Amino acid sequence: MPHTTQIVGGPNARTDYHINQTPEWFYQHRGAMLLKVVDDGVFRDIVIRQGDMFLLPPNTPHNPVRFANTVGIVLEQRRPAESIDRMRWYCGSCDGGVVVHEAAFHCTDLGTQIKRAVEDFKQDDEKRRCKQCGELANWAPPPGSIPDPNLVAAS
């Protein structure tokens, strides 16, 4: 099956969770990254350290957090014609993974399509407002809110 290879450097700062109907393979070439996932409704943080690899199952909401001076490689299958990618934002105030907004698209150019979805979310308070509690969801994490595993000793 044809695939797309991405070489990705940090830092980045987003709050969305990407949902891909095909698996994604992560290899961390330099430094460590944090892969935030929603696994059966539970939010988990997976640290992928230099030299490690991780296979993300299909349909797993994930937010890859990359830090300064890090480089990773991501392999994704080319999307079948009927495949739909989704970008999902959750409420940071409500328990239980309340979805604030979800954008869906057939992926042809992930970089531009993610940027477009994030900009659209960022600029629309109605899309950012939680229907359950009224909180306005962040489009980017507050500075310093995500600990950099490259600055913390491995446990």
From TrEMBL:
GO terms for biological process: 'de novo' NAD+ biosynthetic process from L-tryptophan; quinolinate metabolic process. Its cofactor is Fe(2+). Pfam families: 3-HAO. CDD domains: cupin_HAO (cd06123). One of its GO terms (cellular component) is cytoplasm. The keyword rRNA-binding does not apply. SUPFAM superfamilies: RmlC-like cupins. Its EC number is 1.13.11.6. Keywords: Dioxygenase, Iron, Metal-binding, Oxidoreductase, Pyridine nucleotide biosynthesis. One of its GO terms (molecular function) is 3-hydroxyanthranilate 3,4-dioxygenase activity. It comes from the Eukaryota. Catalyzes the oxidative ring opening of 3-hydroxyanthranilate to 2-amino-3-carboxymuconate semialdehyde, which spontaneously cyclizes to quinolinate. This is 3-hydroxyanthranilic acid dioxygenase. The gene is BNA1.
